Amino acid sequence: MTDTQNANASDQEDYRHCEEYFNDVSAPLAFDETISNVQLFIGKCAPNQRTVLITSGATMVPIEQNTVNYIDNFSTGARGAASAEYFLENGYQVIFLHRNTSIKPYERLIPSALKVLEVGSAACCFSTVKVKADQFVKVRGVLEQAAKYTPSLFLLPYESLGEYMWFLRGISIELQQILGSRAMIYSAGAVADFYVLQRDMPEHKLHSDVEPTIKLSLTPKMLLPLSNKWAPDCYVVSFKLETDPSILIDRAKKALMTYHHNMVVANILATRRKTVTLVESTGKVIQIDNPNQANDIELLIVKVLEERHGEYIKRS
Ligand code: PAZ
User: Fold this and answer.
1) What pLDDT shows up at residue 134?
2) Pairing between β-strand 275-280 and β-strand 285-289 as defined by DSSP bridges
3) ipTM computed for the complex
4) Atom of ligand 1 nearest to the CA of 267
5) Which end of the chain is less enclosed by CB atoms within 10 A, N or C?
6) All domains in the chain, ordered by first residue
7) Ligand 1 center to residue 239 CA distance, Å?
8) Ligand 1 centroid vs 200 CA: distance in angstroms?
9) CB 104 within 8 A of CB 134
10) DSSP string computed for 44-85
């Protein structure tokens, strides 16, 4: 077999694996209604405007059908939340597909000491945050920004890996159909590498008097159908997180060759707020440094991406 034939055979295998995943894991509650709402939101995109789907936060993997115990992975959601604000400032509509417990745009800028939960004492409210009336002046700027951009921001929470996957596929297909190249998919979330198949999951809670056996299966690589079948005309950016700097750029290049998308933002866990490397499908590598962290590094990442996306739209 030639290299191309090998690649095609392995692609077919990956596509099959993805389909099997959706056969195994049921759709989130009210999935069709949510996608209809997303469709309406995307449809509001003005002719000269763009829309970005940002994925943000970790994914929860249940290990019991009636879930008490689960496996989680790492991500605070700070990258996604900050990026959402900068895309909005750059004129994008933003669909923010985020883990329900992770950091949210604008909300991240309000110190927790200023937040209250009682509606009665709130001076202003967006999303789930209410600010103490006597502290309002301190965060007026953030609240005004949030209010300004709320119509362009679609917040969509998920909890489990399954919900994440279903929404990712559903929204990507809509972006492709409605906007094509004017849409970007910015996949900053941290997706679990392993999950438990429905048939390998006990129905009830595991008990601590018997050592459990948990069978993990590999999570299918959704980037392949995402960039080749669901949203082939959209500008697709994935993220690569490593802890070993010596393998980072090679892994990013390998991802581009395997999934045929537009860009990988490569970062190291310990330094992810100070430095990232953008690796493009053209082979170009751009390092972004933000040593003093005077601004969010996402401001710089989004600036480059906005430019690249503009060039991509012109070429298409
Ligand atoms: O969410 P956060 O700000 O704490 O971290 C961001 C990040 C490291 C999850 C993101 O930059 C990233 O690399 N996402 C992809 C993770 C992965 O390779 O699975």
Assistant:
1) 78
2) antiparallel
3) 0.99
4) 13
5) N
6) 3-240 (3.40.50.10300)
7) 7
8) 28
9) no
10) T--TT--EEEEEESB-BEESSSS-S-EE-----SHHHHHHHH
